[in-house]
Amino acid sequence: MPHPSEPGKSRPARRHRHAARLGVAALCTAAALVLTAGAVSARPGPGPIGTWSGTVFRTDASERNELSFHADGRVCLRTEGGGRGTGTWRATSPTSFGYQVDEQLLDGSGTYFGHVLIDQAARQRGPGFASSGVSQVYGADGGYLGPAEARVVARRTSAVPFSC
């Protein structure tokens, strides 16, 4: 029997068309959720995971560096002076973390001349972090040369960490 608002159409046909519209709407909503989830996962999450470029400030000098924080707790360091290091990091609160790195010191020709045990406490704010701490410096023969205060200021350059 035709419905008064749709002459010539029966109620089952109208219900079928309504159900089809709901199905299309549900499909569009599901697609939008999938696309949104993909976009969100490409953005940096909380914590330091990703690649950061910054500067380390010591009492006698400053140097550009790049740090890479990995989800498994690894951290990697590259310095403009040729230093390389690896270590670990851990969150200490939703906006702070600590990291320790053993940086191998190399001269301009690539010769090893010591290493620095870096220990930093960091506070992250948006796309940047600042950290400070006291590092322990060792010579090529392993002898302890003394402490060195250092401060790092860095900005995230990628949500993806570089390989160590």
Overall description:
It is elongated and about 95 Å long. A hairpin with a 2-residue loop joins strand 8 (112-125) and strand 9. It is 20% helix and 56% strand. It is built from one helix and ten strands, in the order ββαββββββββ. By secondary structure, the protein is of the alpha+beta class. The chain has an eight-stranded antiparallel barrel. The N and C termini lie far apart (74 Å). 20% of the residues are buried.
CATH fold name of the largest domain, please? Lipocalin
N-end to C-end Cα span: 74 Å
Order of helices and strands: EEHEEEEEEEE
Radius of gyration: 28 Å
> Architecture of the largest domain in CATH?
Beta Barrel
Q: What's the helical proportion of residues?
A: 10-25%
Instruction: Count every beta strand, where a strand is a DSSP E run of 2 or more residues.
Output: 10
**What is the total domain count?**
2
Largest sheet: 8 strands, antiparallel, barrel
Assembly classification: single chain
CATH superfamily of the largest domain: T3SS negative regulator GrlR
